[in-house]
Backbone:
């Protein structure tokens, strides 16, 4: 067996270079690892914040839909009390607000703006036209005993405005 002869100084310097190179690459590995972990944590934080925002907006949409549905029922209550005095006197295509009159235990329309926990609810009545078959159409014969109701709820969040609306028809059921 033949061994290669390396002078002691060259053997030690090669070993020193190997140790220095491994130390340098170890530091690079640590820096890359920290960067990857930092990016992953930042991404998870961003996703968590976005998810929280989505959950908040979804909850607000549910609340707005409930308020809109309640608004439709309030307008129906006004219709039941008296079409002529409650519905017939309102101007078509005009936004009104709803107010509950506790003394008389009934809903009434008002032009005074009101908010409910940051939500603004309005309603508007629209004229209804029918064709020869009594189907609702865009133009035709005016049906004074039917109105289209649109209840809209709007709110603001972080500079953005959101809205939900419900549309239905009401008729002068009780001929009052």
Residues:
């Amino acid at each position: 067996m033949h061994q290669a002869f390396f002078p002691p100084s060259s053997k030690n310097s090669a070993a020193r270079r190997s140790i220095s190179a491994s130390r340098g690459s170890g530091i690079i590995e640590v820096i890359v690892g920290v960067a990857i972990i930092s990016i992953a944590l930042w991404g998870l934080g961003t996703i968590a914040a976005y998810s929280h925002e989505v959950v908040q907006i979804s909850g607000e949409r549910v609340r707005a839909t409930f308020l809109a549905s309640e608004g439709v029922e309030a307008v129906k209550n006004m219709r039941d009390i008296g079409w002529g005095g409650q519905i017939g006197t309102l101007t078509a295509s005009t936004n009104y607000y709803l107010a509950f009159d506790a003394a008389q235990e009934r809903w009434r329309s008002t032009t005074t703006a009101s908010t409910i926990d940051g939500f603004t609810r309005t309603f508007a009545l629209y004229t209804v036209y029918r064709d020869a078959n009594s189907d609702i159409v865009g133009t035709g014969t005016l049906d004074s005993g039917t109105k289209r109701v649109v209840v809209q709820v709007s709110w603001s969040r972080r500079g953005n405005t959101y809205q939900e609306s419900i549309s239905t028809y009401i008729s002068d059921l009780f001929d009052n």
